[in-house]
Design a protein that fits this description.
2 domains, 11 helices
């Protein structure tokens, strides 16, 4: 995996500015894995995608992942720390295990990928989207005319068991009202917020230093982070 430099951040931000979050995740992985095709990355199981995005976050932004949410009960704003590496360690199955099909109610399915989520994203209702994922992952037979709720629930449980990082759930506690609850962590959106923040910081530095010293964008981006920061501090003193 390659760490993204300033030029890569700009390229990623520009390409993904108006794209769907699914596309943004794949664009980030394509930048980190230049030897892999976009098509092959789209065929990764979602847990493998999330694992790689977590590692890329650590490389680009450090090990401390800070986030905030609203208490589900008293609406208190809560800030908390997480370590992305914890999301990619224990309980994660190896890639070859994720490529193995799963069986539910006598039918065989492959693990959902970004392609399957893209098909589901166009559905007007969540239930219809989930059904599209199930039918696109079905192997070796045509889908039945109707799926029972029990069948869909069993298939969803098998997917979650086989690919535990496909959905990241956090157990949270509010010290104000002592409520405990679970919340889904949207890794892709969180990653992109940091990409956009980094790109805008760089744009501000480029604008400021180019206006003051006449340096080119390439010259400013090629500077080390510390050197560029010192120049910005000198202009503010």
């Amino acid at each position: 995996m390659r760490t993204l430099g300033n030029a890569e951040f700009f390229g990623l931000w520009e390409r993904g500015f108006r794209r769907h979050p699914l596309d943004r995740a794949l664009l980030a992985l394509a930048a980190a894995f230049p030897d892999l095709s976009y098509e092959s990355l789209a065929d990764w199981p979602i847990g493998r995608r999330n694992q790689s995005l977590s590692k890329l976050f650590c490389q680009c932004f450090g090990l401390d992942l800070r986030a905030w949410t609203i208490c589900a009960n008293c609406k208190e704003k809560l800030e908390f720390d997480m370590k992305p590496l914890l999301l990619t360690g224990r309980g994660f199955q190896e890639d070859n295990c994720l490529n193995e099909p799963v069986t539910a109610n006598g039918r065989v399915f492959r693990i959902p990928t970004s392609r399957d989520l893209a098909q589901a994203a166009s559905a007007t209702e969540p239930a219809a989207g989930a059904l599209r994922i199930v039918e696109s992952c079905l192997i070796g037979e045509n889908p039945p005319a109707k799926w029972s709720d029990e069948e869909l629930s069993a298939i969803g449980e098998r997917f979650a068991s086989a690919d535990p990082l496909a959905e990241m759930c956090l157990t949270l506690h509010c010290p104000n009202c002592r409520t405990d609850w679970q919340e889904t962590f949207d890794l892709v959106s969180f990653f992109w917020v940091h990409v956009e923040a980094r790109a805008r910081q760089l744009l501000f530095a480029i604008h400021t230093l180019a206006s003051t010293y006449g340096w080119s964008e390439a010259d400013i981006l090629s500077m080390s982070e510390n050197r560029r920061a010192v120049y910005m501090e000198l202009l503010q003193s």
